[in-house]
Amino acid sequence: EPYHDRLKEAVTEEELRAAGKAKTIHDVVLTREKGLENLVAYDWYERYALIDHFFGDWNSLESFSNCKYPEQGDFVNQPYLYSYDQEKLSIKLRRDGHVWIGSDWVPVSVDKEVYLEEEDIKVVYSITNLWDKTIEVWFGVENNVNLLAPDSPDRYYMVDGKNLGALRNSGEVRGKSFGVVDDYRKVCFVIEADREISHWYFPIYTVSYSEAGFEKVYQGSCLTSHLKLKLMPGEPVEIFLKIKTNI
After folding, report:
1. Domains of the chain
2. pLDDT tens-digit profile of 161-216?
């Protein structure tokens, strides 16, 4: 938003009082906390669930959370073919796309089938290298979840049953089971993988402006599970995920 350009000029009410300046909101730019300019990042894609990434080598939690990271594939915001089976309560999605491997634009296909089970959601990935040479890729699956109340102790990140703290936190962990838990409403979004993999987590904020000044508004948490894969020519590699939604 254009008003984000004024963030660096913003001061808190405490700073204004300390300076002994009796100005109104029309004279100064107020902020409810310092450092909000560091939260402003511009997403180039919509954040939802089961977003497929192929990361570049120098990616990190910091660069990814700031949306300033190397995306090597053309899967994040591009269309997939789909079909669904009403009896099985499943949907199949496929994209024949490409991934940059050095200077080569390599054809790669991603198939994923999502099954709605009685209490869980099962996701089966199949990734195939359509090139004639073996390649190595860094694959990630992004999910975004909003359990509200980022500072509440009864809403928290969890890995393999261990509480990682409130939703305002960020970090990287390894484990087979990872997600967010809401003890108050007895719900969760926990991803169970078929192997131990890495997970990034961080809160997503927007910065808005009102008569009280600039403030951050929690919009949800980003959970991105990722792993390195070696893809032989024409040989699919499968990844099995189960998403639990009830405690």
Report:
1. 1-40 (no CATH), 46-246 (2.70.98.10)
2. 999 999 999 999 999 999 999 999 999 999 999 999 999 999 999 877 666 667 78
Phi, psi of 80 (to 5 degrees): -115, 145
Q: Show the tokens assigned to 157.
A: 């990140």
> Which residues are CB-contacts of 28 (< 8 A; sequence separation ≥ 6)?
11, 16, 21
- CB–CB of 13/28 below 8 Å? no
Cα–Cα dist 68/172, whole Å: 17
DSSP string, 39-53: G----SS---SSEEE
Tell me which H or E stretch contains 93.
strand 90-101
Length of the chain: 247
The continuous run of DSSP H or E covering 15 comes out as: helix 13-18
Give buried/exposed letters for 98-118 (b at 16+ CB in 10 A, else e). Answer: bbbbeeeebebbbbbbbeeee
CA 70 – CA 51 distance, rounded (Å): 15
Helices (H), 78-215: none
- b/e code 227-237 from CB counts within 10 Å (16+ = b): beeebeeeeee
Contacts of 49 (CB under 8 A, 6+ apart): 142, 143, 144
